[in-house]
Amino acid sequence: MDLEVRHLRVVCAIAEAGSLTRAAVSLHMTQPGLSAQLRRIEVMLGGTIFERGQAGVVPTPFGELVLTRARAILPGIDDLLADTARATRPRGAPDRIRLGSVGAPLLADLVLAVRGVLPAAEVSTRCQYSPSPLLDDLAAGRLEAAVVGDNPGHELPPHGGVVLRPLVTEPVFALLPATHPLAAEEEVSLNQLLEDDWAMPHPDSDRTREYWATVFALMDRQPHAPYEAEGRQLIEIVRAGLAVSLCQATFIEVPGIAVRPLAGTPVWYRHVLAWHRDGPLAARGDDIVRRVGEGYLATCARTPVYARWRERHPRSAQLSDPGQLMSGEATAW
């Protein structure tokens, strides 16, 4: 077996995830299949790349050498693929648009917006927990647009050629079991929530956990977080009364779950739309942002807890200036 680019991507994905199980999910593989492939790569390269342990995997000194070279090689390959894809792309309206999204409420609005400006195009979607692979795919021409996001002081890093368009900065709310005593309140204190056990997302390259830790540190406290989960699993842990957590303001309450604003609004999240400056959607960016913004406002109106919060805070969580662009640089919140 000869070394291929996909093998380098596998090694980098394992290092980023910190475990074979999480890497298998991100690579859409089974964990045994990924383990077998890693063993073949290690045999081919002649050394052990990762030490396996109960807490995950850690690169060996040999693995650090492999990762350093892989991380130096892959951006150049991605640039080559992106440049050749753009050079061979047919002129005129594209017939296929690939969209990506993190766990945000804007993906359906983005699909509808693209269909509105390009009604003849076939639209497909895929999701990631972290914005980093989506930005990589945008830069490499594997996606045409994506919904991403970041937190104050932890802005998205630069990605070559990717335009980042902030849409709105909204508060982050508390996620509680419906039976929790604080669920009877109109808003809850983050300090009170820190008395409970927490369910937290996996530390990832979107730096959400890092941002939350910064907010907690300002209070001279850190939560006891015995549960690490995301998506449906996190919701079920909260629903069972085992823990509390945080959620996006547009999260719609479901049976067994209560969503409440945090007093003083100490935690924020920014929704961002992204596309390549030379991609097929670049000329239609303003129209797409406008349509997605209208969809976001409609979602706010359908979310009772957030709608009431917006009525009490009419100057907060407004759509960003249509002319506000980022190229990965930090911008004011």
TrEMBL record:
Question: Organism source for this protein?
Answer: Streptantibioticus ferralitis
Residue ranges occupied by any HTH lysR-type domain in the UniProt entry = 1-60
Q: Which PROSITE patterns match?
A: HTH_LYSR
| Secretion signal span | none
Protein name listed in UniProt: LysR family transcriptional regulator
Q: Which domain of life is it from?
A: Bacteria
Q: Which keywords label this protein? A: DNA-binding, Transcription, Transcription regulation
Coiled-coil spans are: none
Which InterPro entries does the UniProt entry name for this protein?
A: LysR_HTH_N (IPR000847), LysR_subst-bd (IPR005119), WH-like_DNA-bd_sf (IPR036388), WH_DNA-bd_sf (IPR036390)
What's this protein's family per the entry?
Answer: Belongs to the LysR transcriptional regulatory family.
